[in-house]
């Protein structure tokens, strides 16, 4: 299982489950109520993909549901079909807010070491979107890396790279082309362990996955199809072992990337956080306070207004989700209490507070 990211630490963690007759498996794709996972056959030791029932580990909170990259404890002899009986604690998780007005979170990938944020050089880089992806990546606990794709289509890749680097403090920005192979080896070396590729539809995520895997493992769509019908070929996430070691998870193109709270925004805007430390007042809001280093940087142009606006916008979004999650948790607790009280009354037992 080492080729799929199994480590001695996981082996130790799993020991009691192994004693209970369960097998470790890595989830490579999730469907409704079922998943595909890779495990070492207990008889032959060979790796194989098995179809598993995941309903036993289902949860009202989508965040606790199995997702690609999760390590599962599997009961091969469960009836009517082999089943996941537990998930191992995640080392990292990429969580976005689900699309729309709801405040639920959705896990895109688990146990990821590197988040490859793919953006195409063929169009003007959308810096705000890259900043948003960076916040999402930092929040996950994994290390972000920006991959600028389709280098073969432009002459000024270096200029664009410099622009992107300016909005990605502390993050490596690589220029690659799946067409010519430029930068692919460097990328491979920069992403050991488990990597996930995220980005908008059509930026070349599946093509990149194929280039890294050295084989056509993902269906690649014609760019034209995206424009005319807004169609996505990547419908299910997949986890693919790479020939030189490491594992890659390809995700479908992300239209909406709502943030799901946390410190990710501050990490993505470390330059602004650093400036804020120079403000005269510790709790400076960077509005009207004297001696504000952030406003000084805006005034002399070292901090672009666009970046400041982007920072404030993402921060506001996080605050909204934080308030909503608190409200949701409180409501869930209340409902649970009501249900318990009701069932105890029905049973004629005492109800004490
Ligand atoms: N010239 C050139 N074209 C590329 C490169 N990488 C991808 N493309 C083209 O870009 C289009 C989209 O590529 P995909 O790999 O399907 O994009 P994707 O990000 O996986 O798209 P979704 O599956 O919708 O998320 C295809 O027509 C690819 O052939 C590249 O390095 N150079
Ligand atoms: Zn200030």
Features:
353 residues, Rossmann fold, binds zinc ion, alpha/beta, 10 helices, five-stranded antiparallel sheet, globular, GTP-binding, 13 strands, binds guanosine-5'-triphosphate, RNA-binding, OB fold (Dihydrolipoamide Acetyltransferase, E2P), six-stranded mixed sheet
3D architecture notes:
The strands form three sheets. Strands 10-9-8-11-13-12 form a six-stranded mixed β-sheet, sandwiched between helices. Strands 3-2-1-4-5 form a five-stranded antiparallel β-sheet. It contains ten helices and 13 strands. Among the domains are: about 90 residues, OB fold (Dihydrolipoamide Acetyltransferase, E2P), CATH 2.40.50; about 160 residues, 3-Layer(aba) Sandwich (Rossmann fold). α2 crosses α10. Helix content is about 35%, strand content about 20%. It starts with 7 loop residues before the first helix and ends in a 7-residue tail after the last helix. About 35% of the residues are buried. The longest helix is centred in the C-terminal third of the chain and has 42 residues. It is α/β, with parallel strands linked by helices and about 350 residues long. Zinc ion (ZN) binds next to α9. Zinc ion binds next to α9.
């Amino acid at each position: 299982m080492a080729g799929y990211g199994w480590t001695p630490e996981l082996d130790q963690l799993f020991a009691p489950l192994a004693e209970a007759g369960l097998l470790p498996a890595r989830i490579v794709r999730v469907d409704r109520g079922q998943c595909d996972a890779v495990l070492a056959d207990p008889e032959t030791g060979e790796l194989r993909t098995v179809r598993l029932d995941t309903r036993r580990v289902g949860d009202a909170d989508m965040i606790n549901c199995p997702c690609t990259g999760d390590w599962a404890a599997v009961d091969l002899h469960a009836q009517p079909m082999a089943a996941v009986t537990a998930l191992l604690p995640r080392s990292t998780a990429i969580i976005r807010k689900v699309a729309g007005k709801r405040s639920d979170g959705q896990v895109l990938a688990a146990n990821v070491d590197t988040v490859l944020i793919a953006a195409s050089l063929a169009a003007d880089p959308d810096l705000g979107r890259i900043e948003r992806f960076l916040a999402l990546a930092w929040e996950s606990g994994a290390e972000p890396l920006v991959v600028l794709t389709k280098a073969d289509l432009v002459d000024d890749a270096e200029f664009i790279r410099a622009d992107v680097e300016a909005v990605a403090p502390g993050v490596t920005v690589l220029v690659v082309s799946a067409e010519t192979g430029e930068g692919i080896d460097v990328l491979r070396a920069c992403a050991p362990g488990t990597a996930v590729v995220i980005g908008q539809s059509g930026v070349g995520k599946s093509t990149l996955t194929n280039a890294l895997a050295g084989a056509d493992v993902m269906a690649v769509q014609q760019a034209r199809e995206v424009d005319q019908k807004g169609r996505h070929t990547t419908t299910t996430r997949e986890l693919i072992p790479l020939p030189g070691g490491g594992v890659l998870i390809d995700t479908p193109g992300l239209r909406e990337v709502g943030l799901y709270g946390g410190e990710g925004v501050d990490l993505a805007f470390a330059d602004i956080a650093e400036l804020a430390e120079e403000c005269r007042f510790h709790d400076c809001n960077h509005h009207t306070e004297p001696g504000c280093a952030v406003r000084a940087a805006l005034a002399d142009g070292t901090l672009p207004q666009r970046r400041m606006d982007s920072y404030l916008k993402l921060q506001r979004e996080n605050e909204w989700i934080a308030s909503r999650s608190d409200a949701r948790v409180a409501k869930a607790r209340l409902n649970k209490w009501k249900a318990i009280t009701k069932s105890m009354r029905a049973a004629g037992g005492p109800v004490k507070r």
